[in-house]
Design a protein that fits this description.
Elements (H helix, E strand, L loop, with lengths): L4 E6 L5 E5 L17 E5 L20 H4 E4 L6 E5 L4 E7 L4 E6 L20 E3 L5 E7 L16 E6 L14 E7 L5 E11 L7 E7 L2 E6 L16 E6 L15 H10 L20 H10 L8 E3 L6 E3 L4 H4 L2 E9 L2 E6 L21 E7 L25 H17 L1
Antiparallel strand pairs: 1-2, 2-3, 3-4, 5-6, 6-7, 7-8, 9-10, 10-11, 11-12, 12-19, 13-14, 14-15, 15-20, 16-17, 18-19
Helix pairs in contact: 3-5
């Protein structure tokens, strides 16, 4: 069954907000004495806040005391937007779907007809694409998730598409981006960020902004599942590379301290930008050193965003990402999943990325974080990094690069 409890969030007021579907009974959505078809608001101990819009203790505590907004069919996803402090939801209808802002005491109209979803909609999918989650990338959340400045404040929505469908789908199986104005009206989008182009059942479902990108989950095992409930759905991360940014210590310039960070990180497992992984390929090696050499002495202050609340310095992508619109050029970084790229002549597969100039890789990429989503509950599975082999007979260029960089560093001192 669906159309039951779906999204849970904690609002800026410290209250718990619960999305509850209509249970396949449209009559419940407009009935304030039913919990179904509502966004409910409650305290952490399960009690009803006395400032809820329909709270009235005179007749005992019942469903209407918990109602924050009503008239929903299946409000799958929800998220808070820092820019206006408002809650937004994405909802599945019958033949159409909607994106709406959820206002206190609002009536969202669902009465069993698709037309009843239109009045409160900020955006309508027609035909339906099955949007199931929404999240915002914004400086107030994880310092902007290391997305470029041009992407800050954007809403991202996962479109699950037809249930258990195989292959690429026109109506869903993608993450799309929306631009909202100050009043929460859609003024841009939906623009595809990630889409599925495989042959299996993989489709995007869970979606959340994290400290280093957007995280999303599949709903089904992608290839050859025995049934829709077979384990095997994966977790992915969408991140923007910084075009080969070698400012490993995030102090605003590329200098000898960054070389030392690279040197310490060579061969490390689960490397990060701070340990010398300049091109975000999950290994610290000679390619990262070459990036450091090319950027040595450059000032990167213009490409750093500081989150004053957390103290985290989050590197954003290079300026071309802020000025170049998304175009059709793509890079296939994970089997079955493709990215829509900023306008560029570059088109390479994941296996080719290491041989492409990192200066050209100012763009979003997709990482597979977990082959099985169940692994997430227990541990983070890292990619084992291979140490740089300094062997003059088999890899003379690596040795030359290392000592050339060291000479340049020594001269700088």
């Amino acid at each position: 069954q669906s159309h039951q409890i779906s999204n849970l969030t904690i609002g800026p007021d410290g209250k718990l907000y619960v999305h509850n579907g209509d249970g396949f009974n449209a009559a419940t959505a407009l009935n304030l004495d039913s919990y179904r078809g509502k966004v409910l608001r409650m305290n952490f101990d399960g009690t009803a806040p006395t400032d809820n819009p329909f709270y009235d203790a005179n007749n005992g505590i019942n469903a209407r005391d918990y109602v924050y907004a009503y008239g929903f069919r299946n409000p799958f996803g929800g998220a808070w937007r820092a820019a206006d402090g408002k809650h937004y939801e994405v909802e599945n209808g019958n033949g159409i779907d909607r994106l709406a802002r959820v206002d206190r005491g609002g009536n969202y109209g669902w009465n069993g007809s698709d037309s009843s979803l239109l009045p409160q909609a900020r955006y309508v999918w027609n035909p339906a694409h099955a949007p199931v989650n929404i999240t915002f990338v914004e400086p107030e959340t994880f310092g902007g998730s290391q997305f470029p400045g041009s992407k800050q404040g954007r809403a991202y929505v996962s479109e699950s598409g037809p249930t258990y469908a195989e292959g690429q789908q026109i109506e869903g199986k993608r993450i799309v981006e929306f631009v909202l104005d100050a009043n929460g009206n859609v003024v841009g989008g939906p623009t595809t960020l990630v889409e599925y182009v495989g042959i299996g059942h993989g489709t995007v479902a869970g979606l959340i902004a994290g400290p280093d990108g957007l995280y999303f989950t599949e709903l089904y095992k992608d290839l050859d599942p025995a049934s829709p409930i077979e384990a095997g759905a994966r977790i992915f991360r969408v991140r923007f590379t910084a075009g080969g940014d070698a400012d490993f210590d995030l102090d605003g310039d590329v200098d000898g301290r960054d070389f030392l960070a690279w040197q310490r990180g060579v061969g490390s497992a689960n490397p990060t930008k701070g340990s010398g992984d300049a091109n975000n390929d999950d290994v610290v090696n000679g390619f990262d050193l070459a990036i450091w050499q090319g950027e040595y002495g450059h000032d990167h202050h213009d490409h750093v965003h500081h989150d004053h609340q957390s103290g985290i310095t989050a590197p954003l992508a290079a300026e071309p990402l802020d000025t170049t619109p998304l175009a059709a050029t793509r890079i296939d970084t994970v089997e079955g999943w493709w990215m829509d790229m900023p306008g560029s002549s570059l088109a390479a597969t994941a296996s080719e990325l290491d041989s492409v100039s990192d200066a050209d890789l100012s763009q979003p990429v997709v990482d597979t974080l977990f082959e099985n989503a169940a692994d997430f509950a227990f541990s983070r599975r890292g990619v084992e990094s291979q140490p740089l082999v300094l062997d003059e007979e088999n890899d003379p260029s690596a040795v030359d690069e290392l000592f050339a960089a060291w000479d340049e560093f020594a001269d700088a001192l």
